[in-house]
Model the fold of this input.
Amino acid sequence: MNRILITGGSGFIGSHTCLHLLSEGYDIFVIDSLVNSSEKSINQIKKFFKEEKNKVLNNLRFFKGDLKDKDFINNVFKVAQKENNPIKGVIHFAGLKAVGESVSQPLLYWDNNVIGSYNLIKSMSENDCRTIVFSSSATVYGSSSIDLLREDSTLAPTNPYGTTKLSVENLLKDINQSKNKNWRIAILRYFNPIGAHKSGLIGENPLQKPNNIFPIIINSAFTKEKLKVFGNDWPTEDGTCIRDYIHVMDLAEGHLKSLNYLIENDPQLLTLNIGKGRGISVIELIKTFENVNNISVPFEFDKRREGDVCKLVADNSKLKSILNWSPTKSLEEMCKDGWKWKNLNPKGYSEHN
Ligand SMILES: NC(=O)c1ccc[n+]([C@@H]2O[C@H](COP(=O)([O-])OP(=O)(O)OC[C@H]3O[C@@H](n4cnc5c(N)ncnc54)[C@H](O)[C@@H]3O)[C@@H](O)[C@H]2O)c1
Done:
């Protein structure tokens, strides 16, 4: 059974990917420092399989630790080797992601995201594991005004978070050109993951005040506090910003497809946009959320927020042609599943054991 290491596996996207990989029969090792998550997400994954009376629980191992500590990473590789089931590939989610915080504390972001990734890649190389799927972001495109962003569009991040993502991409490009040509690398640039697992057992659990619109919509529906829509004078049909939303379980599937593609094909570096390729305005998202869940989301317009970009939508044709796959879940499912998670867990993971 293929053993996969998932860094940042107790976070939002990581936990959904862990659940998906376990469902598909993989053995997983999870590393997380819990700097922005709770181990309770891992307990909830276990609960899901217990409820299903499924034995895959034995295939999940959690290691609390930080990627800034290379000895710790090496030890995790050694545990796997001692069991004669070495780590076959890595899905690397671990990283800090708050744009505003990255502007005020760039060194924290370089240290955590770049040095952490460097340690991981070095440790992989030393332990003869050269398959990695890396979480990059549409942020690397910066404030492009292009209608649909292609993988070869200009890269010009506008904040340290984006710069650290691009730096890790560059590191991966360099090692791909190295003497040892055996690296299999997928750089996945994701757009806007939202929603939750349909069980309602796991979901997005922001520890800090969220900056992204979907958890803000959920909170506003729940508390009835008015949310602010930044700008209704953008050059779009309804004047609000446009993003490309993707269901987090589709994103999890995209990781698995990428990993399998790498394992089954010759060494290479693959860069893919992971989005639905459909632009949704903030107002369209709010209205869909209201209609699907039969609930009101109070909002008011405010002026544009500094640093915001009008439109970020993926050209996902490369994803479709290479992986022969594209995200399938609808905006309605994203809204329904996200709201279910909130209703079943009003305080996130804090009320679970
Ligand atoms: N959520 C998004 O909208 C989005 C969009 C594009 C890219 N991404 C990227 O995807 C990845 C996962 O995002 P997410 O939304 O699940 O975020 P998240 O914060 O929920 O998950 C990241 C996890 O990494 C852990 N972590 C951070 N630094 C670590 C370190 N040095 N060592 C060990 N663990 C560490 C955190 O504790 C957390 O559990 C991140 O790299 C993020 O930058 C996210």
Remarks:
- The chain has a mean pLDDT of 95.
